Amino acid sequence: MDNEIKIKIxxxxxxxxxxxxxxxxxxxxxxxTITAIVGPSGKGKTTFLMTLNRLWESISQARIxxxxxxxxxDRFHKIYDSSYPLxxxxxxxxxxxxxxxxxxxxxxxxxxFPLKLTGVKDKNMISGKVETALKRAFLWEEVKDRLxxxxxxxxxxxxxxxxxARALILEPEILLLDEPTSSLDASAGAVIEELMLSLKDxxxxxxxxxxxxxxxxxxxxxxxxxxxxxxxxxxx
Length: 236
Fold this sequence. Notes:
Strand content: 25-35%
Radius of gyration: 18 Å
C-alpha cells in the first residue's frame, strides 16, 4: 500500500480503574484508506477509537499509557502532549456513533452547530458549508427544501447521514465511525457504505463493524481487537 502513514500508535494501553482494556498496542494506519476494526463485543473497540480523539478523558478512573501520533500537515503531532490543543484535535478527528444522535433543533442548525461552537458568524459562509457537508453526506437532495424541519423528522438512515454531515462540516482529516450501520436496515446501510467509500479522497476512516460482509466490501485493511491486542485480520 503506497499511502503514507497517517496515525502511529506505540505501546498504547488503556485502563479503567486497574482493569486493562487495551494492552500495549502498536500499529500504523495509512491515510485515505478505510480500516475496519473487528472482534468480539465488549472488548474495547469503541474505547480504541476514543483514544484517537481523546474522547475517553471524560471517563472517571480511566487512564492510558503509550503514545498516539497523527500526521497533520507535514509532521506528526503527539496528540497527548499538553501543548497540542484538544479543540484542534477534535476538529481534525471527527466521530460518528452507533446510534444517530441529532440535536433537538432543525436540520440546518444540526449541521451548522460545530461551526457556531468555533465562533464562525458569517451566515453566507455557514450556509455554503452546510450545503457542502450535506452533499458530501449524500443528504442534500433529500432535505434541501426542508432545512428548517426538526432533525427528528428524518428517518434513521437520514439521521445517521445528518450526523456524518455534522462531523464533516469542520473538514476533518480523520473520521472515526463506531458501527455506523448497525441500527439501520439493509437499504439505509448500503447508502452509508457508499458514502464511506466516497470520503476516502479527503479522509482517513477507521470503522468498527460486526458485519464481515461489510468489511469485505469497503475496507482496505482489517484489524481484529481481542484480548486487548490489535492483530491484522484477513480481508478476503
